[in-house]
Amino acid sequence: MAVNKDDSTVTLGDILADEDELREALCVLAGSDPENCSYSQGYVKRQAVFACSTCTPSGAEPAGLCLACANKCHDGHNIFELYTKRNFRCDCGNDKFGDFQCQLIPTKESQNVKNQYNHNFHGTYCSCDRPYPDTDDQVNDEMIQCIICEDWFHTRHLGCTVVESEELQEMVCDACMNKAPFLWTYAAHITANRRSPCKRAHQEMTGSSAKSKSGACRLKELQARGLERPREGAVFWPYSWRSELCTCVSCKRAYVDVGVQFLLDESDTVLAYENRGRTEPFGQDPLMSFLSSMDHVQQLEMIYHYNDLKTELLAFLQQFAIEGKVRNRCLEQITKQT
């Protein structure tokens, strides 16, 4: 659709029916440093991570890059975004890259032994092990990330009904629920997959929390109530559910034993990371900051074409945000589409 560049009736207040998706994409990048390799920070609690299929193609050892290295060291390579990963240290230039050297921090250890990798690093996702976007998939299906294994799943492969609710913040896939089976007890009491309302379930848990302040195990108290739910399918969790987990010594050991001790850290969440991105480095909402940098004609181009070009535009913005060229080339890309 052509844009009437003399149209002055559309303002920023009218734009982007799906603006939250664009805002989220910008926040993922805004929460990481685009200029300095994060390697010197060690295993970063959470950061945007990328993979380079030019340097580490399918069949090679998986490796991940920080935002700065994706921008500086791998310019012109086939880069794809992995969203965010926890406790990850940049691999750029280590032994996995052969003779390729990081331009920002040339001297690095041969391996980052604490990094966790999955098939995402070679461009496939979900239990179906398919790429995204998948040109062979005729189903328009959303993908959701598990907060434990950090893999992405098609909603149709989660094994549960996906409930649309603003209260639902995090998802744990079926395999990870069974890896940490004590979570099923909490799920029976506090998740929205139950028939009882989330608010009531939260009140029940709050009461349980108060009773457990003396040092009693909250998990055992819940188990004694005998409330069960089917142990199958992914589970969606409401806001602040992590604060309801028991923190007695025995339960803390259980979290460590199955590698989910990060569940006790509410700053580990993607939401917390994105909230940091909203203030660093933009100092304001990143979407509004981005749009405010455009003149009115550019704003109109963005407004009229966003819905039609949503998938392409998100990929485009993420690509050129890495290269520091978002503002200058956004209008050029949209014009080409027309």
From TrEMBL:
EC primary class: transferase
ZnF segments: UBR-type: 35-107
Catalytic activity entry: S-ubiquitinyl-[E2 ubiquitin-conjugating enzyme]-L-cysteine + [acceptor protein]-L-lysine = [E2 ubiquitin-conjugating enzyme]-L-cysteine + N(6)-ubiquitinyl-[acceptor protein]-L-lysine
Alphabetical list of SMART domains matching this protein: ZnF_UBR1 (SM00396)
Domain UBR-type intervals: 35-107
The UniProt record lists the keyword Zinc: yes
GO molecular function: ubiquitin protein ligase activity; zinc ion binding
Highest taxon of the lineage: Eukaryota
EC code: 2.3.2.27
GO cellular component: cytoplasm
Annotated coiled-coil segments of the chain: none
Annotated keywords: Isopeptide bond, Metal-binding, Phosphoprotein, Transferase, Ubl conjugation, Ubl conjugation pathway, Zinc, Zinc-finger
Cited InterPro entries: UBR7, UBR7-like_UBR-box, Znf_FYVE_PHD, Znf_RING/FYVE/PHD, Znf_UBR
Pfam entry (one): zf-UBR
Recorded metabolic or biological pathway in which this protein acts: Protein modification; protein ubiquitination
Protein function: E3 ubiquitin-protein ligase which is a component of the N-end rule pathway. Recognizes and binds to proteins bearing specific N-terminal residues that are destabilizing according to the N-end rule, leading to their ubiquitination and subsequent degradation.
Record's protein name: Putative E3 ubiquitin-protein ligase UBR7
Organism: Myripristis murdjan
Record gene name: UBR7
